[in-house]
Structure formats: structure tokens, C-alpha cells
From TrEMBL:
GO terms for molecular function: oxidoreductase activity. One of its GO terms (cellular component) is membrane. InterPro entries: NAD(P)-bd_dom_sf, Sc_DH/Rdtase_CS, SDR_fam. Keywords: Oxidoreductase. Belongs to the short-chain dehydrogenases/reductases (SDR) family. The keyword Transferase does not apply. This is Short-chain dehydrogenase. It comes from Planobispora rosea.
């Protein structure tokens, strides 16, 4: 993918953290942006700053997914889908032996089914334009961290969806990216603000994502670390 003003990206979870940092970088490269996040009050200033289209809503909601797909169509297609929005689940993080199954089901809806639904909605355009999908994963998908079993299970499922999608869609680049530990609100919710503050900022991950988008290596799992 070369630097051009004609390319369009859809980024979920774009009002803060890694989604916001990547949106700013892509805007600087001349991309047109469709941004979504749950809170309109946080998302609108970002969209105003970057000249982007803001559509606030829950990515796990079917009606909102359809609104995003329509926005892609109205923009003439899509070159990049970034599935960044993610839920953490119960806090404090519980062991699997006592994990509330209804909460886990909702977490799979947000972290697995919602990204797949968006992929299904926009993949015809991605095929046509030789586009790409970036699914934000986690080291919890492959490592056994106490308390992270529920969240990690959803990211492991997202990894496998990405892996199979890469085989089934040879015209679309698919990368599932482990950004490593970042100083975000989600990490603070999981481990506390003090420990989270010691982690690198999400902007440190952006060069890794930009390298993928600009250089278009083979599909696969990518670890920022």
C-alpha cells in the first residue's frame, strides 16, 4: 500500500489507545478514515481533529455493524479494516473455575464475533481493492497468564479466525498483531493504574502497524516485541 489520499480505513476502538494513535498516523499519511467507538463524546473530537467520519456505537451490535458497512459503501470501498475494539471482561480478573459464563459469552461477542461480522461485511471490497485486515490480538492468546483465561481465549479464537481467513482470502492481507503490554485504560482496569503507567504508550506500536500497511508482508501473526 502506497501513500495516497484515495485509500480508506475503518478503525474500531478509535477514540483512545492504540486505535487513536494509529488513526492519527494514517491521517498523516493522507488516508480517509471511518472511525468507531462506543462513546460519541470521546469519538467526535478525534474525528473533528482528523477530518474523519465518526460513527459511535457498539461493534457487537448488528445494527451498528450494518451502519459501518453502509459507510464503507458510501465511501466507495475499503482498503484497510483494523479490528482494535476489545472488551476485558470481569475485573478483578477471575480464574476460569469461577468465570461467569454469561460474561464470557458477551466477551466472545465483542472480541471474536464482532470482528468476524465486520470482516464478512467488507471483505468483497477488500478483495476488489487488494486490501488488508489487522486484527489486534494479545500475548494472552498464546501464554497461560493467571486470571487472563477468558480474555485470552477470545484472542486465541481471533487468532485462528485470522489464520484461516488468510488462507481462504489470498487477495486480502491478514495480520493478527500482538502489540505487547501498553499503557491503556484496559490494562489499568486489569492490573491497576500504577502498574499500567510503567508500560510503553500505544504510540510505540504504531511503527509496527505502519510497516505492515506500507510494506505488505505475507499474512501472519506479528509480535510488536
Amino acid at each position: 500500500m502506497t501513500r495516497t489520499a484515495t485509500k480508506t480505513a475503518l478503525i474500531t476502538g478509535a477514540s483512545r489507545g492504540l486505535g487513536l494513535a494509529l488513526a492519527r498516523a494514517l491521517a498523516g499519511d493522507g488516508w480517509r478514515l471511518i472511525l468507531t467507538a462506543r462513546g460519541v463524546d470521546a469519538l467526535k473530537p478525534v474525528a473533528d481533529e482528523l477530518g474523519a467520519l465518526a460513527l459511535a456505537g457498539d461493534v457487537s451490535d448488528r445494527v451498528h455493524q450494518e451502519r459501518l458497512a453502509q459507510a464503507v459503501q458510501d465511501h466507495g470501498g475499503l482498503d484497510l479494516l483494523v479490528n482494535n475494539a476489545s472488551g476485558l471482561g470481569v475485573t478483578p480478573l477471575p480464574p476460569l473455575a469461577s468465570y461467569p459464563l454469561d460474561v464470557l459469552a458477551d466477551l466472545f461477542g465483542t472480541n471474536v464475533l464482532a470482528p468476524l461480522a465486520l470482516i464478512q461485511a467488507v471483505v468483497p471490497s477488500l478483495r476488489e481493492r487488494g486490501g488488508a485486515v489487522v486484527n489486534i490480538s494479545s500475548d494472552a492468546a498464546v501464554e497461560a497468564y493467571e486470571g487472563w483465561g477468558g480474555y485470552g481465549a477470545t484472542k486465541a479464537a481471533l487468532d485462528q479466525i485470522s489464520n484461516v481467513l488468510a488462507v481462504e482470502e489470498p487477495r486480502v492481507a491478514v495480520w493478527w498483531v500482538d502489540p505487547g503490554e501498553m499503557n491503556t485504560g484496559m490494562l489499568a482496569d486489569a492490573v491497576g493504574a500504577e502498574e499500567a503507567a510503567a508500560a510503553p504508550g500505544p504510540e510505540t506500536v504504531v511503527p509496527t502497524l505502519l510497516r505492515l500497511i506500507r510494506e505488505r508482508p505475507a499474512s501472519g501473526r506479528v509480535s510488536h516485541a
